[in-house]
Amino acid sequence: MNAIAPDVTFDLATTPLRELNEALHKATAESNARRWRVLNPNGRHAVAVGLAMPLTVEIEGNVGYYCAGMNAEASVIIHGNAGQGVAENMMSGFVHVRGDASQSAGATAHGGMLVVDGNASARCGISMKGVDIVVKGSIGHMSAFMGQSGSLVVLGDAGEALGDSLYEAKLFVRGTVKSLGADCIEKEMRDEHKALLAQKLKAAGLEGAVDVSEFKRYGSARQLYNFHVDNASAY
Amino acid sequence: MTAHNNTPRTPPRFSSTFDPATLAEIRRAAATGIYDIRGGGTKRKLPHFDDLLFLGASMSRYPLEGYREKCGTEVTLGTRFAKKPITLKTPVTIAGMSFGALSAQAKEALGRGASTVGTSTTTGDGGMTPEERGQSKTLVYQYLPSRYGMNPVDLRKADAIEIVIGQGAKPGGGGMLLGQKISDRVAAMRTLPKGIDQRSACRHPDWTGPDDLEIKIEELREITDWEKPIYVKVGASRPYYDTALAVKAGADVVVLDGMQGGTAATQDVFIEHVGIPILAAIRPAVQALQDLDMHRKVQLIVSGGIRTGADVAKALALGADAVAIGTAALVALGDNDPQWEDEYQALGSTAGAYDDWHEGRDPAGITTQDPELSKRLDPVKAGRRLANYLSVMTLEAQTIARACGKSHLHNLEPEDLVALTVEAAAMAGVPLAGTTWVPGKTGGY
């Protein structure tokens, strides 16, 4: 399955999750064990959370909630589907879901990149704070709700209320958007935005795979940035 | 003198329903079109600890000698699951208050005061500042819906984690830090532009309900290698069920905040009309712990209107393991101090009533990000005042406990208490003074 043999293999069918996460936390910059493989995750929650080193962790199967939560520097590849809150509050590094992702993918993440090969459910990128998220399929409703910064790139469609109460996160959608949330508007796609989008697509391994001119850009109208009673009906 | 002048007249009489304060609020609302936003907790009169009394020792109970016999005050939190529980010398802790709502100097002063007496302080929405971590021997890191400033490095620096579901001033409400308090530093910590209003969400972004919370707690434990106590904080509204569900979700500690608990900025209507007083919340929470055989195994911290050692003793007698103070700690630092009366007057308020904390113009330099105002608060001196105050509260609680014959504050019990009012007797589950009548429970005489 992997071209390069892993340095360490953990089988969650026989080893407690706590031992896996503790071992990953103990990895040091000097360690030679850079490639980790996790077998039989079987939907376990909190797999490979709180990593703080540039390791590569390949997970062979489906994971439950919060896989790669608070990730920093590590690359976590999930060869399966991911449950709620994958890569939540990620600081840096790279998380790749080869299947679909459930709700709140990349929630509140501050940095790094999350790539979902399939679809992502509701609230993808909710309250995102600097992460780049690329979803090759479609995303569910209320995605990028209160998104503060970073970018969300969707090759498929977006559900209802995209970008509701958005701050400065940048949204790019290639397909249809069912509806926009409060204070989210379509914006002009200038060259600088095309360049930014191309850069994110390249980082996600999609250079040349899709044409940036097929995307529309969405962002904050910035009308709700300071409370005013005349806008009360928008809240 | 005419006959007319001798006729008795009805004097002007204000309506109890439409009293002057109500009339003024109607006029203010009519003039502005916006609800009133303010800081602090509820200002209405409520059943409270003042409505309880200790019985003290008598023929059948023996007091302890005040200056000779020990009365312990220490409390250990997080004994259920955490590898590293925290032990505090006094059960009076400092509640979560954010850098953003408070100045960096005020946060530092809270850390200094708490550390001097061996208790903990707590971060707030907006993350952990180096000043606060540096000056706080024991620091609780709040995990809030907004996740402003949340990061794994600070999480590992914390001594405990407090997952905030709600707070007493506004159970079910999020928050709003208005643009005038968003300095460059506050903006950077929250990853938002300077000067815009910062909304704090009312629900967590990646979980909903107690079953999800159980998984969230597992994740936080896995990230921190099961070392840190995990608290769950709720605003007092349905304390029996909230406590039971927090225990079920795997909390080490439940924090229960009554409606007297303060807030940095919330609608007055929310503060005054949502939630229940702490007096009404403690017994149901303790009952939930007892029903689950978790009393003293999952610790209970209560807050909301704690002012004196008597309040501490009463909260502990009702079954709490510790208390938290927020408003009282700010007053000890210098909030609403009469020395700034001229400036409070200029802001249309008066010392003791100033609550426009959200405007960022606090003359005492505490609830502000204005560099000139903030400089007025000396963190060392203010920390010393807080330490003094915490010491007094602890001594007062010990005084009462010894009078009841208790060698530790945790040995205080409901049997030591009576109530002055029927309402307090019902809420606290103790007899009305001079009777054996506990409303709703016993017949009495």
UniProtKB/TrEMBL annotation, chain A:
SUPFAM superfamilies: Alpha subunit of glutamate synthase, C-terminal domain (SSF69336)
Name of this chain's protein: Glutamate synthase domain-containing protein 3
Organism this protein belongs to: Xanthobacter flavus
Gene3D superfamilies associated with the record: Glutamate synthase, alpha subunit, C-terminal domain (2.160.20.60)
Gene Ontology MF, one: oxidoreductase activity
UniProtKB/TrEMBL annotation, chain B:
GO biological process: glutamate biosynthetic process
Region (Disordered): 113-134
Pfam annotation, one family: Glu_synthase
Keywords annotated in UniProt: Oxidoreductase
GO MF terms held by the record: glutamate synthase activity
Top-level lineage group: Bacteria
Comp. bias intervals (Low complexity): 113-123
Glutamate synthase domain mapped to chain residues: 80-334, 358-406
InterPro entries listed in its UniProt record: Aldolase_TIM, GltB, GltB_archl_type, Glu_synthdom
Family the UniProt entry places it in: Belongs to the glutamate synthase family.
Protein name per its UniProtKB record: FMN-binding glutamate synthase family protein
Phylogenetic classification of the source organism: Bacteria, Pseudomonadati, Pseudomonadota, Alphaproteobacteria, Hyphomicrobiales
Gene name as annotated: gltB
